[in-house]
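BUG: 3D viewer hangs when loading the predicted structure for this chain

Environment: internal workstation, default settings.
Expected: structure renders.
Actual: progress bar stalls at 90%.

Input used:
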Amino acid sequence: MQVKLIIATIKPFKLEEVREALTAIGVRGMMVTEIKGFGSQSGHTEIYRGAEYAVNFVPKIKLEIAVDAPMADQVVETIAKTARTGKIGDGKIFVLDLEQAVRVRTGETNADAL
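Structure tokens produced before the viewer hung:
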């Protein structure tokens, strides 16, 4: 069975809500990384000790989730719905074909490794 890798960037305060929603639809695991990035918002300015500084990278959370291909659309829809605030910087979702997955402990491969 084919496996998909879903990479999503979301706002940090949405992480727990997204995790709960994904668990509810049967996602059994994910990798989470704190990252910084920018898109159309191109950063912003902040005042620190009276001086204005340009903040070019915005804190984000990157989720990486491997799922059976038939489940990918539901995972994408769940992330999009749950992470959406309607404001700029809500994030992006990318779906890639995953060539191979291996569970290190057992040697199981692909869908069995998830």
